[in-house]
# Entry
Amino acid sequence: MNQQSQIVFPARECAELQCVPHDPDPLGPNEVAGTTICTLVSVGTEIEGAFIGKKFPKYPGYAAVFRVDEVGENVPNIRPGQLAFCMGPHRSYQRMREDHVVLLPEGMDPFNALCARIMVVSMSTLTTTTTRPPARVLVCGLGLIGHLAVQIFSESGYETYGYYPLPERRQLLLDAGYNALPEHPLHNPALCGTIGLVLECSGNEQSVLDSCRAVRKRGEVVLVGVPWRARTDLPAWDLLHAVFHHFVVLRSGWEWELPLH
# Structure
């Protein structure tokens, strides 16, 4: 097999499936390789950040599951035929170092396994927050990252609420058995001032400001969602005033604050 298929962004707002050559070098002693089963596209990183970005061509990739075909001589715990997860590109063949690969549990659906990559985004906040269960946690924005964040924090013992204006997104969360709010807790006297941690997953300035006004003293507001573009004309003073007078810890939700291994 001398060629493989790969998604390429050759120019702004243009995507193509191209044939690209295989790596001609022999498999390294600590590498594994195999045929791709499925990959996951990140709407933020890849569409917002790369597809409409600058400097082309780009070769996007976010997460992949592949069937192991080959293993290096120093890879004792992975064998051909097993399914593995990696943060690989959108191409028909994956080649990774062994320590960048995780075997799927027996019987796991490969498409479900891809969600592990999305779960990592908010689990960094779970690891670094000073807020402890059973404190109240709010997740603003119920895309895939926010939806999974509600599940992660709920299952970790927090009293967790998801908020998003669209009823369809809230219903998905309710159907899964979790709490979903039709309005921001800033407007709910029973919740306002009692929230220990907010994961702001929408990237919306108004949501950030409302969250800073709704947390308890020394409450954390973590910016998980990327502010790809300005959605309001709020002055910075409003945010600074809320942070100062509500004693808010406002910080980045940097996914790679934790080491890869």
